[in-house]
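Closing statement on the LTNE7NMQ sub-project.
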Amino acid sequence: MTALATGTGGVGSCFISQLTWLSKNLPSTRLSLCYISMIDKALYRPDYAEIDFDTALFTLEATGVEPPPISTIVEYLAAAPHNVILVDNTSAISLAEAYPAFLRRGISIITPNKKAFSGSYQLWQEIFSSATSGGSYFYHESSVGAGLPIISTLKDLVQTGDEITRIEGVFSGTMSHLFNKFAPTSGSGGKWSNIVREAKELGFTEPDPRDDLNGLDVARKLTILGRLAGLPIESPASFPVESLIPAALENVANADEFLRSLSKYDNEMEEKKLAAERSGKVVRFVGSVDMLGKKAKVGLEWVDQTNPIANLKGSDNIISFYTKRYGDMPLSIRGAGAGGPVTAMGVTGDLLKVLCQLR
Ligand SMILES: NC(=O)C1=CN([C@@H]2O[C@H](COP(=O)(O)OP(=O)(O)OC[C@H]3O[C@@H](n4cnc5c(N)ncnc54)[C@H](OP(=O)(O)O)[C@@H]3O)[C@@H](O)[C@H]2O)C=CC1
Ligand SMILES: N[C@@H](CC=O)C(=O)O
Ligand code: NA
């Protein structure tokens, strides 16, 4: 059995550590690594020789070569003498769009990358049909709520005949961290731009934090959950999404320049916070999918100080499923929704699920 890993950042490096742990503590998994890459370096051998887990990242950095095109990677893996699982720990759209090509060739996929599952509805359908025709599997638990059991719970609800009426909550570790620190229910909050930088340093944000602040990351998660619950959402751009990017910074060239300039616009967020406080509320970044009304939305809401959403800590997500069976009291899941170790846990957990099915 072989795992192929791409992406060696916050999540990818924790995933490699967890592979090392598995190989020592669950040797019956008999996993090996035959390909590992970052953006501009890849490590692999024509004879699929095992790459040592302990030294993989160092060897990749020191001796990696230019990665081959994705079509070559598909061929390389399809010709492997054993089952192969692609573990995509990147946020690359190019790789996400190639999932059907991997799945059709019998290569299973595990990923925290939201891009494929929240891309066009056509890509979503192709992923399902390609897995069926290739006899392969795909799991993406960490694409929503990091390692929290959100997708597996939703699938269980749907596959046992419950009907989802509404999904709502805080779906972003970054946004949770920002608002818990910027507009706490007691005491005064910190400076918006400083907390944004801190969220990036803690590994909560997307590679480009603007993808969190513009609401797109939450919109992608709602697209995934809405589709799994039975709503054919066309794309994350097909419903209202509020962006927290100051208008004057919408076109800055890159994330570094954006972060450098953000403090000039701290007063815009300060005003939003004070408006909520004047009504005795706190401001939070909330998302919802109304399955009955066939609508989704993402944006700022004023919530009561006693609302569980107002009282999250750290990078906590809280995601509530309202269903026919659960009635007025939703099934709610809460816990850290971002960060390398917890996200990699969801990826490694998915890997174990695929291994059970490939045996
Ligand atoms: N961080 C978190 O808390 C969570 C992250 N996720 C998702 O996990 C994924 C990874 O996030 P994170 O680890 O934080 O991001 P990082 O920016 O830390 O790491 C991304 C990695 O992907 C590599 N990469 C990018 N494009 C390619 C490519 N085309 N081919 C090969 N490698 C590539 C980068 O290479 P290089 O090192 O050369 O730049 C880097 O190693 C994202 O999809 C994110 O949305 C999901 C839930 C939570
Ligand atoms: N940037 C995302 C990472 C997890 O999906 C977040 O902050 O939630
Ligand atoms: Na999850």
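Residues 141-142, 144-148, 150-151, 346 surround sodium ion (ligand 3) (CB under 6 Å). With this model delivered, the sub-project is considered complete and its resources will be redirected to Aim 3.
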